[in-house]
Amino acid sequence: MAFGKSHKDPFGTSVGHLIEKATFAGVQTEDWGQFMHICDMIITSKDGPKEAVRALKKRISKNCNHKEIQLTLSLIDMCMQNCGPSFQVLIVKRDFTKDHLVKLLSPRYNLPLDIQNKILSFIMTWSRGFPGGVDVSEVKEIYLELLKKGVQFPSSETEIGTEKQVALSPSVTKPPPFVPSTSVHSSAAACKAPTILLVAEQIGKLHSEVDMVKMNVKVMSAILMENTPGSENQEDMQLLEKLYKTGRDMQERIMDLLAVVENEDVTVELIQVNEDLNQALLGYERFMVRWARDSLQVSSSSKIPFFQITICYL
């Protein structure tokens, strides 16, 4: 036990004290050796996972120090990869993911965009499941809640360390600050649909529909690559508009399936397809904003300014 601290203090245990030191703002950068030592202590101690999670909660709870949050997220990432199901199952619970991690996305913490994206990336990755039978139903619900709120998760192709705006869809204008709320959870819990385990025939049919979504995404992406706002092909634009409307309908169906399907492999594929589809839909929306802006500029420039009008008197 750390000197001067009781076991009631999350930092008062051996592993808690190490977590406190490793995530202190005075630390210049991640000490990966110390992180690995913490992982070893979590694995080898009976109460290691619980004590570690309590310490992690304390470190990030109401913490406005961006450096400490960044270090803590790096430690969580390493622990999730190395500490096994006994630790993972505690992290993916709602009381940690929603009540601590998601709360950090509130504007009051003013987190840098790369740290926001890291948190969102965690939630998306964890919702896909882990080996060893870890129950990820709660983090999957959180992922769906955020999607329904319009939170744009970072693309798998986006490097977490880059400064990228966490955009909201379908709005393509700058979104209002994201404020976590318990209302979504309460309403979802009240009318939660029963889960289903798809059989082989249903999975086969679903794969056919998923393949159609993938094809539509490829076509949308190709059209967006080949056209420039202001010089676009009209036939391409008509097709793109139809694909966009179809994509929105498909996305609603994917969301409904994610809420009830128990098959882990199906869930993983649906999350990936939804991510790709969302990127394509967002690409279309951005294209149309640029098109509207350029059209407005052309329209304005075509008018003769008042000061250029010359009146001749005979």
TrEMBL record:
GO cellular component labels: endosome; membrane
The record's section on InterPro entries has: ENTH_VHS, GAT_dom, GAT_sf, TOM1, VHS_dom
GO MF terms listed in the record are: clathrin binding; phosphatidylinositol binding; ubiquitin binding
Q: Where is the VHS domain?
A: 22-154
The UniProt entry, under PROSITE patterns, shows: GAT (PS50909), VHS (PS50179)
Q: Does the keyword Magnesium apply?
A: no
Domain (GAT) ranges: 201-289
- Which sequence ranges form a coiled-coil region, renumbered to this chain? none
Source superkingdom: Eukaryota
Alphabetically ordered keywords of this record:
Protein transport, Transport
Report the family membership: Belongs to the TOM1 family.
Q: What is this protein called?
A: Target of myb1 like 1 membrane trafficking protein
Species the sequence originates in: Vombatus ursinus (Common wombat)
What is the gene called?
TOM1L1
